[in-house]
Amino acid sequence: MVALEGNVAQKRKTLIVWMLLFVATCAIYSIDYHPSRKTSIISLLNKPLVVIDYFLSLLGSPIIRLSGISSLVGLLIFASCLFFAFHFGKKIREHSEAIPWLSIGLFSVLSALVITLGRWEFGAIQAIESSRYTTNSILLLIALVQLGQLFVRGKSADIKHNYKVVYRVFAGVLIGIIIVNSGQAIAQSVSALPYKQGGQDCLALISYLEPSNFFNNSPESCLRVLTKKTWLVREGAVILDKIGWRKSAKNIEFIDNKEAVFGYFDNPQTSQKPLKLKKNATVKVAGWAALPENLQQPNILLLSYGNQKTFFANAYVNLDSGDIAQTLKSQVYSNARWAIAFSTNNLPIGQTEIKAWVYNPVDNQFVQLRGGAKVTVEDEE
Predict the structure, then answer these.
(1) C-beta of residue 148 within 8 angstroms of C-beta of residue 174
(2) At 1, is the pLDDT very low, low, confident or very high (cuts 50, 70, 90)?
(3) Which one of 17, 45, 239, 280 is separated from 233 by 20 to 30 angstroms, measured CA to CA?
(4) How many Å apart are CA 1 and CA 107, to the nearest integer?
């Protein structure tokens, strides 16, 4: 838009500035960039329908998130975009008001194309479910609504009325769908918040988390909330800490608190004799955890074994605990229970004790819950 205004010298300067910004952006993005996959033109040509389906599903995802239907809606959106681009592009000087919206629409389409080139192999379902791509697609809808308004305004009085009715119906339905989808997205975000907060805590404590099978592969891993590539989280945390953008917690004291109650390790109860387990078996542990009422309650609980000063697993502290809230006389503790199942592959062969801990950020301490589970892991014969 800016490049179309001013005299020749001004246009040239503006284009040079934008080109330099583009080159600078590419240069910054390429720093330490090591793609694990490379897009092949041949593979794109071999599966054109899959590529097109991904692209159209990406455009239709802000309206509906159903496989097949989303691509049909995307086709309608893309066709509308082409129509308006052709209509206003024929006499662009006469339609200067449309230039900003055409630019936004073009940006959205090009962004969708770039995303498609890099992600089409994951299938259309990934385009539908990945909400981080929705912003670019919504920009196209916004542009279409504004271009539609300009299109109707430019018609003669005798046919403007019919176009105006169609436009209002279309805009009303579109706004209604976006409001409904936004409500669903907000509800999903609220339900996912405890897990995201747990992931944030794990990122801060990442130097104390073992590269265990649980943290690398379990769906309950607080690192996998951030990304399934847990190695990338660890490498990224080191880089962020090194450049000073984020500081990981260090020199944390381990406290075996015998005075204050920070929770209990309820299940399994093994005070009499150790629980015998086979290698590759699954064991479920549970209990409740809390910090003093005036502190932020823990999002996660961490598990260790023996005298280890690192952790092999986590559990989310978000299960209903009305009985605990009633006992402690505070609703702060209404979701203080936790439970997690994990493979005994995370434990050493022989007898050991599983311990549960919560992190107290105010005093920079790991505080052990009362109780524990004594287990004996036996190797498979």
Answers:
(1) no
(2) very low
(3) 280
(4) 12
Helix (H, G, I), strand (E, B) or coil at 254: strand
Please report which helix (H) or strand (E) contains residue 304, including its range: strand 300-305
Q: How many Å apart are CA 209 and CA 116, to the nearest integer?
A: 35
> How many angstroms separate the CA atoms of 151 and 80, rounded?
12
Residues in the chain: 381
Mean pLDDT of 336-340: 93
**Higher-pLDDT residue of 218, 181:** 218
Is the C-alpha dihedral spanning 91, 97, 100, 105 positive or negative?
A: negative
Residue whose entry in the numeric block shows the structure tokens 């900003």: 100
Q: What is the pLDDT of residue 159?
A: 60
Tally Cβ neighbours within 10 Å of residue 88: 21
Q: Which is nearest to 215 in space by CA: 292, 245, 227?
A: 227
Terminal Cα-to-Cα distance of the chain (whole angstroms): 73
Quick one: which H or E segment has residue 295?
Answer: none
Q: Report the candidate in 128, 136, 131 with the shortest Cα–Cα distance to residue 112.
A: 136
**What pTM, to 2 d.p., does this model score?**
0.70
- The total of other beta-carbon atoms located within 10 Å of residue 283's CB is 18
- 168-181, pLDDT tens digit by residue? 787 788 788 778 87
- Nearest-angstrom CA–CA distance, 106 and 139: 10
pLDDT at residue 4 is higher than 60: no
Please give the Cα distance from 69 to 64 (Å, whole number). Answer: 7
Quote the distance between the C-alpha of residue 329 and its chain's center.
36
Write out the two tokens for 146. 């504004």
The answer for residues whose C-beta is within 8 angstroms of residue 312's C-beta and 6 or more apart is: 210, 212, 214, 215, 303, 304, 305, 346, 347
- C-alpha dist (Å) from residue 132 to 80, 99, 106, 112, 135: 24, 27, 19, 12, 7
Angstrom distance (rounded) from CA 231 to CA 134: 27
